[in-house]
Amino acid sequence: MDTQSAAAAVAVALPELVIDSASDTSHFFDNNTDTLVLHSSDNKESGKWSNLFLAYKTLGVVFGGLVTSPLYVYPSMHLDSPTEQDYLGIYSIMFWTLTLIGLVKYGCIALKADDHGEGGTFALYSLLCRHMNIGILSSKHSDLNSSQSRPALNGNDDQKSRLGKVFERSIVARRVLLFIAMLGTCMLIGDGILTPTISVLSAMDGLRAPFPSVSKSLVETLSAVVLFILFLLQKFGTSRVSFLFSPIMAAWTLSTPLVGIYSIIHHYPGIFKALSPHYIFHFFRRNGKEGWLMLGGTILCITGSEALFADLGHFNRNSIQIAFLFTIYPSLILTYAGQTAYLIRNPNDHIDGFYKFIPKTIYWPIFIIATSAAVVASQSLISATFSVIKQSVVLDYFPRVKVVHTSSNKEGEVYSPEVNYILMILCVAVILVFGDGQDIGNAFGVVVSLVMLITTILLTLVMIIIWRTPPLLVAMYFIVFFTMEGVYVSAVLTKIPEGGWIPFAISFILAFIMFGWYYGRQRKIQYELTHKIDLGRLGLLLSDTSVQRVPGLCFFYSNIQNGLTPILGHYIKNTRSLHSVTIFTTLRYLLVPKVAPQERIIVKKLGLKGVYACVIQYGYADSLNLEGDDFVSQVMDSLRVHIEASYGCLPSDLTQGQEEISELREAKIAGVIHVRGKARFYIGKNTSLFDRLMLAFYEVLHNNCRSALPALGVPLPQRLEVGMFYEA
Questions:
Q1: With 11 labelled, which of 48, 164, 375, 594 sits at a CA distance of 20 to 30 A?
Q2: Which residues belong to any copy of the K+ potassium transporter integral membrane domain (predicted)?
Q3: C-alpha angle 513/66/451, rounded to 5°?
């Protein structure tokens, strides 16, 4: 059985998997449960004023990277004696890039491909998984959240698209799709490292113009300090940060186009004739290969557009569209027009293309706003990184880092302490080691173009498989955007020796971590499916005279609802006992803020004396303490109610019920324990070197370095058995 097939089998046999990243426990929510309530991002905020207020807040989180791109676009270009026609061609390229990729692709199309209100590469992948029998998500799970997906869901399996059936049948196609999704996620995380560095470094570089004595190393040090403070603020949550940052971003968004209008009037009023696409054709005909290479800098005008999609979980579709259409897009068009108008009259000032075009009378106010805005720009990709890490953890493609929900009414607003500090260290390292803004710009261009291309591919699959878009429209979309972004990618790949290798190195390390985790998890799933214990087997184990039912109450946490985890067999084999009252507990995560108290705990008898099943349902804003007295009391109360309801009204039935309730009380008094198993691999001598290395790496990620020894063939003292074994 291949890993993808095993994953699909689990999706059918088990409920949908969701990881509690703060613990070592896997959680589930049932595909068929009536208590599952999903809500889309469009329904979370209602009313015109609410959307306008949210649109204002998006300025401080979503659009920082995009709207501050004028700081570094022209300085990142390798221009050699540019002419007026060159600048007109460059502006025409930037205008149509912003219009087609920013406005049409992301603003109008990508935002509709949400997955439970979440956006980004892995959101697209999980959306595809849910509509095909691939990955670890069940295709039978009803997507009540995405309005765009409903038409596809209303049909039956016989009406699946041919392409969807290809993915279901072909393991190669499934692996390619997974690789594309992983690469896009890793590149976006790389974007989260490079955006803060280039934004802050470019803004702080403005100190060197009025103060020539300020050294480059001082600018780099100040930039590192600013980023250090920014990352320390992340723990307060996106809402608080956006409330603080939105006024700064509003000031930037309004001031730079005003400067642009002044520059247009003062330097080159006819700049908007460059909106004609024929300037693009003349530019490439005149410059040839050099013009093609300049695309590596031009692509930076659209940087941060992926955050527009990836940050969808922090806000909603309407608010992002309003902010982009009415503020961000016109601001960028006017700012770049003003910069270009100035450079047409001062063609050799492109190395400092932003600060040079600022009038001296307002230089310092703009510098302060620019520096503050650069900090805000960093926030957009940091928030996007938190979102994609959370999605990857939820889909079980990333190690279980701690994910904290920082809002009680917004599921997508998350923060990860470990990821935050790793990003901080990497950002500061990139600034101090690769302080040259042009090298960072080269690396940045690689990330931006590849992420956009991957999003185009996944969106095309969503159109075909889920939305059932007419083939002509799909072809038009794919040809236009794949061609544009493919040309950009071909240009930026030439920058790999000049700093473009940085995101590839980061992405390779992240992809190796993700693949190692995924590989180990799939091997574990295969084992659990093969060796799961049913109630009949449990009865046989308990019938052994050497197995004692000891006094006490035991909560046995299991990942499997359709059957019992193999950990149980190892536990009984090694302890030769089972508690008089054993409750197999599964945690079920629901996409709601809080679960009603009466729906929080679901219990039932499993047919054996003293053996019960319990499902704990909780929302993202619920606190979860599984070992406190309150939790135990709530479960006991639910069991008592269930037992009373399960017996009839005859005196004999009532007596049996009271005896069972009395046994529960006695078990609680005797003592309460909680059992969580840790899975470890032990591989035989005939196992391939690849399997040994990958499973050892998984053990390092999941447990610790010592636990990797059995996977390499080195036995640990007192190991339980050869094969995959568990420690209870």
A1: 594
A2: 55-535
A3: 35
Task: Tokens for 421, please give them.
Answer: 């500090």
Integer angstrom CA distances of residue 328 from 62, 243, 292, 305, 543: 11, 18, 27, 11, 71
Question: What is the DSSP secondary structure assignment for residue 647, as one 8-state letter?
Answer: S
> Tell me, what amino acid is at 64?
G
Residue 207 one-letter amino acid: L
Rounded Cα distance between 247 and 242, Å, is 9
Region of 410 on the Ramachandran plot (φ > 0 left; ψ -120 to 50 alpha; else beta): beta
The rounded distance, in Å, linking the Cα atoms of 12 and 605 is 23
DSSP code string of 16-31:
EEEE-TTSS-EEEE-T
- Answer yes or no: are the C-beta atoms of 588 and 28 closer than 8 Å: yes
SS3 (DSSP) at 243: helix
Q: CB of 312 within 8 A of CB of 111?
A: yes
- Do 299 and 448 form a contact (C-beta atoms < 8 A)? yes
Amino acid at 454: I
Q: Quote the tokens at residue 51.
A: 């959307």
- Report the half-sphere exposure of 33 (CA within 13 A, side-chain side): 21
Chunked mean pLDDT (size 10), the chain, 728 residues = 40 32 35 38 56 81 82 83 92 96 92 80 81 54 36 47 82 85 82 79 81 82 86 74 77 94 94 94 91 88 81 81 92 95 89 83 91 78 76 74 70 76 86 69 76 92 92 94 93 79 81 81 75 85 87 82 77 87 82 73 87 81 67 88 78 80 89 73 58 64 51 42 36
Q: Give kind and range of the element (H or E) at residue 725.
A: strand 725-727
| 616 beta partners | 587, 601
**Tokens 């046994």 -> residue:** 663
Phi-psi region for residue 119, left (φ > 0), alpha (ψ -120 to 50) or beta?
beta
Instruction: Give the contacts of 632 (CB within 8 A, at least 6 positions apart).
Output: 553, 668, 672
CB neighbour burial string for 585-602, b if at least 16 within 10 angstroms, e if fewer: bbbbbbbbbebeeeebbb
Q: What is the DSSP letter of 715?
A: P
Beta strands in 490-610 (DSSP E): 548-557, 577-589, 601-605
pLDDT tens digit sequence for 75-120: 888 788 889 999 999 999 999 999 999 999 999 999 988 877 777 7
Contacts of 648 (CB under 8 A, 6+ apart): none
Contact between residue 474 and residue 144 where contact means Cβ atoms under 8 Å apart: no
Answer for the pair 162, 94: CB distance below 8 angstroms, yes or no: no
What's the one-letter identity of residue 75? P
Both tokens assigned to 434: 């690769």
Please state, in angstroms and rounded to a whole number, the distance separating the CA atoms of residues 451 and 69: 17
Q: Which of 105, 370, 415, 112 is nearest to 242 (CA)?
A: 415
Minimal CA–CA distance to 306: which of 145, 65, 96, 99? 65
Phi, psi angle pair for 602, to nearest 5°: -120, 125
Query: Which residues, in sequence order, are CB contacts of 554 under 8 Å at separation 6+?
Result: 578, 579, 581, 582, 583, 672, 673, 674, 675
Per DSSP, the three-state class of 709 is coil
